[in-house]
Design goal:
The protein is α+β, with helices and mostly antiparallel strands. It folds into two domains: about 90 residues; about 60 residues, no CATH class. Helix content is about 30%, strand content about 25%. The strands form four sheets. Strands 1-5-4 form a three-stranded antiparallel sheet, with helices on one face. Strands 2-3 form a two-stranded antiparallel sheet. The longest helix has 18 residues. The chain is globular, with a radius of gyration of 16 Å. This is ABC transporter ATPase.
Length: about 160
């Protein structure tokens, strides 16, 4: 059951999928339609999930579920991963590879492999103050407060 993202409680669970490239306007429209349909029908053991989504910066898909209404279960989470895999195939994008880093360079959002990011740290092309996207956040509250942070404030800090 779809709920506007801003109406979900801060404790709602989130999953963030970053694309390896910026999504084009026509792709965004199709992806939003597919997300809307998926979220409308998303259920856990036959019980509807109160869920939502948003797409940020034409690159990040954020799924959210109000765990207090009905909790997402292994099967419902598997269904969401399968849905994301279908988006990957349909739009020739990578959303599930966690071995990539997305960060800001001024107003530009860059996406690099973890190996390339480590090399950039070594070459001082990025610093502990570089804004990174911490896709390991678990709740809407963390997403709002700790998603876009300096590298020194996230799991990326281990590379400095």
């Amino acid at each position: 059951m779809y709920v506007p993202f801003e109406e979900l409680p801060e404790e709602s669970r989130v999953w963030i999928y970053q694309s390896n490239r910026r999504l084009q306007p026509e792709e965004l429209s199709q992806i939003e339609t597919a997300l809307q349909q998926f979220v409308e029908n998303w259920a856990a053991h036959g019980k509807p999930l109160q869920a939502s989504f948003e797409i940020r910066y034409d690159r990040f898909i954020v799924l959210a579920v109000d765990q207090e209404f009905n909790a997402a279960t292994g099967c419902s989470i598997d269904a969401s991963v399968h849905f994301i895999q279908e988006l990957e195939k349909q739009f020739d994008i990578v959303l599930l590879d966690k071995m990539n880093v997305t960060y800001r360079l001024g107003d530009h959002i860059a996406h690099k492999s973890l190996i390339d990011f480590k090399k950039m740290v070594k070459d001082r092309a990025v610093s502990p103050h570089t804004i990174v996207f911490n896709n390991l956040v678990n709740t809407i509250e963390e997403y709002q407060n700790d998603w876009e942070v300096e590298a020194s404030q996230s799991w990326h800090s281990r590379f400095f």
